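Entry 14. Structure prediction run on the chain below.
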Amino acid sequence: MNAQAPNEKPIFVTGASGYVGGRLVPALLKEGYTVRCLAREPRKLQDRPWRSNPGVSVEKGDMADVDALASQLQGCAAAFYLVHSMEATGGSYAEHDRILANNFAQAAARTGLERIIYLGGLGEMGEGLSQHLRSRREVESALASTGVPVTTFRAAMIIGSGSASFEILRYLVERLPVMVTPSWVKTESQPVAISDVLHWLVTCLAVPETSGKTLEIGGPDVLPYLGLMRIMAEELHLAKRLIIPVPILTPRLSSLWISLVTPVSFRIARPLAEGLRNRVVMTDGETQRLMPHPALGVREAIHRALRKIEANDVDTRWSAAGPIPGDPTWAGGTVYTDQRSVLIKAEPRFAFASVCRIGGGNGWYAGDILWRIRGWMDTLVGGPGLRRGRRNAERVEFGEALDFWRVVGVDQNRSLSLLAEMKLPGIAMLNFELAPEPDGATTKLTMTARFRPRGLLGILYWFAVLPFHEIVFGGMLNGIRTTAESAANTSALGTVKQ
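Output returned:
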């Protein structure tokens, strides 16, 4: 192994708003690298703690425009390719990923990039390889198609707070004391902790021998999914789970089952469930030979991830990744509006903090049973439901998922805008606007629900839910007011005592 000092040229990172990319950027900065991020929507990164680091720059764009991409890659030493599109419509995510990888390879070749680093999946090629893992192999080939050296890391399940695979495991174990499971729970895998993944991704930049290599990464433990479930139950201090494997459960049925029980949608669960049927175990020790590192075992990795969740210290979350839809146009056609206001005896900062607590484990201040019923109905028809949670219990950032809403606008202490991602016969938004009153100690909070129906079904939907608005929206406003005023009084009391 021949380690080198960090290159003065920037490191290009795609997928910086994703689960791995959002953690890789600060890891690179910590090691002295400068980083250039590519983001379809830069606002998704504006609240990340590392965004203000002078060593970070963010470029707006995507992989569709090869010319623009080549310009953005200019001057970079290496690039991390962390783009996956399992949620592409029509089951075409594999083709979409292949096109994007080809575009990136062409742009990289034009700029003389020294190498590309890609994180793919473990699994032996053959007729039984899932579409999910086969797609990863196709991306590897596409990235290497123009001659730029590619360092490919292949990993099985990544264990870390907020990852989709980890959330599936945790929710299945938490919610089901008795499980009738697919036969793939007996398939062996070699999980790896997210901290170890990041270590190897960063370290390879300083080890020239890794260029052009395919490197398998994993922890020291090889065990079936069944074993992972049992360890998770023990770390959660739950009674032993009764697990009954049934061979007739197909990947489609498995993914439907996962989407009903966990926060992960059917569209993401399907490729993950397909991948779990393949044995994914390392076949060589090349990674440890080139970059020796004591990787965490499964139990310790799960333990650390759970502690991060308990401490409300989740760095990135799977649900924040993906494209953000543009602002819906409300011009033309019928738009139904429900607007209501409340005066809060507190400064805007207290009111805004209370607004930002909605969703996830915090609930919605009022009518929780109605929210749960709506979330359950949404899950049944393939929507996200009320289970996607949030990265931090007290703060929100642009692009974050709050149950079946997506944050599409944040103006600190002034406004919060949410776009509905639930299955609806129309488009719905929920806006909160705060304005200080002349006395400086009171805030007017205005909440506006907008709904643009799609056909007769949309109109019927609006009038069907309208009677519940007073319970849900009126109660929410009162709950926000009570929480904000309580926080303001507590703060004032603390100031007096000091």
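Residues 11-319 form a domain with the Rossmann fold fold (CATH 3.40.50.720).
Filed with the rest of this week's runs.
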